[in-house]
Recover the amino acids of this structure.
């Protein structure tokens, strides 16, 4: 029944697009922060609209950590059209993120059932952060759009037998655009470099470096000028907690990936791999026991993610540490323990060098990176054998979206 419904892809896309339009006119703010971010950055946009040069100076003088690029594009489009038309264009661009994610899944899992891959891609439409950013036109979705375009092109090169280096250059081109909008996407370039190291010749690696360097020159100059005035601020702002950050990351993995693994068959498969990973399991257990007894959880009014917020609400350090431990164990038994996988997760974990970690950083990026970049035999088998419980997955993320809307509307 479900697979039959999923064959009508254009109809399903149209329905989800209508939900975006409805959310736009209702002013959905299910992320809790998108409306505030949009209001907060309005002054920067107005300065840019009056004068790009003075606007950039205003960014630097007021210690704005965001790149000014998005705030140049947005008012320019509004002046060319009008605010409503501009906002609807950004809303539509956000809608295409799950569409491109579907193309990523088809490349990553070639030969797998396309209806199942399509269903997985639809999960992104239930992201409170994707939807709220689309409605309130923050810079997150435009950066994410160019990242998924980049990843799609990168997988085209990696997965094809007749490799075309044009795909590599396009991949880096899109990635650099994403970086100009949200700087942390530059970290992904390291992952690409590791994947390409043995795939292409030294000559072409040199060409790619030169290509990226020239594209990044304006960004390097802006960063240099920014740091001339704000080096102290950046040092104080970019202070990741090397214990709390992984703890939050593990809870995020548990929160977003557990619905895809929730079955007795997956439990048995993980149990079978216990012996070969027993030492890692014991080390993880020991580390988390030490963490529970000797690490003082920071008290944060903002950020930390949903599991951290619940632990604060019920005043339970054990709840947060335990679920973080479960998330780390899920990672241990659900992915292949290869150098590339570990590098991706490590860089993704510390991709946001801030003392305050917001759930929006990982939503829906966690799902995109795990399905689009990580090599997991368990995920591959679940998709090939159609063992993902779609009813559970859609129910889970629907409840998350509805709950987020209720919570931030203060209905109860």
């Amino acid at each position: 029944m479900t697979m039959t419904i999923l064959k009508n892809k254009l109809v399903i896309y149209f329905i989800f697009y209508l939900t975006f339009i409805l959310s736009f006119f209702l002013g959905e703010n299910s992320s809790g922060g998108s409306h505030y971010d949009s209001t907060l950055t309005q002054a920067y946009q107005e300065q840019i609209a009056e004068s790009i040069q003075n606007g950039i100076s205003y960014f630097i003088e007021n210690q704005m950590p965001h790149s000014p690029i998005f705030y140049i594009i947005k008012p320019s489009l509004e002046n060319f059209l009008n605010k409503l038309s501009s906002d609807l264009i950004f809303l539509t661009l956000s809608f295409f993120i799950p569409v491109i994610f579907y193309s990523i899944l088809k490349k990553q899992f070639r030969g797998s059932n396309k209806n199942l891959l399509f269903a997985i891609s639809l999960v992104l439409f239930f992201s409170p952060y994707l939807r709220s950013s689309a409605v309130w036109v923050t810079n997150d979705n435009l950066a994410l759009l160019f990242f998924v375009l980049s990843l799609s092109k990168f997988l085209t090169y990696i997965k094809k037998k007749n490799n075309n280096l044009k795909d590599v250059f396009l991949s880096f081109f899109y990635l650099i655009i994403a970086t100009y909008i949200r700087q942390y996407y530059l970290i992904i370039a390291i992952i690409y470099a590791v994947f390409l190291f043995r795939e292409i010749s030294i000559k072409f690696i040199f060409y790619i470096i030169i290509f990226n360097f020239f594209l990044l020159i304006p960004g390097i100059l802006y960063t240099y000028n920014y740091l001339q005035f704000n080096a102290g601020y950046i040092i104080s702002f970019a202070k990741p907690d090397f214990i709390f950050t992984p703890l939050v990351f593990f809870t995020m993995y548990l929160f977003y990936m557990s619905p895809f693994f929730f079955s007795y068959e997956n439990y048995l498969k993980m149990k079978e791999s216990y012996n070969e990973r027993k030492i890692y399991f014991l080390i993880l257990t020991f580390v988390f026991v030490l963490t529970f007894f000797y690490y003082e959880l920071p008290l944060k009014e903002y950020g930390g993610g949903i599991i951290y917020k619940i632990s604060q609400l019920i005043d339970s350090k054990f709840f947060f540490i335990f679920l973080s431990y479960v998330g780390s164990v899920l990672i241990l038994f659900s992915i292949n323990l290869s150098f590339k996988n570990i590098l991706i997760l490590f860089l993704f974990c510390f991709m946001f060098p801030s003392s305050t970690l917001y759930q929006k950083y990982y939503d829906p990026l966690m799902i995109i990176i795990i399905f689009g970049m990580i090599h997991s035999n368990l995920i591959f088998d679940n998709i090939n054998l159609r063992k993902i419980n779609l009813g559970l997955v859609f129910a889970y993320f629907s409840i998350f979206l509805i709950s987020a809307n209720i919570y931030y509307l203060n209905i109860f």
Q: What stands out?
A: The mean pLDDT is 89. Residues 239-375 form one domain. The two ends are 36 Å apart (CA to CA).
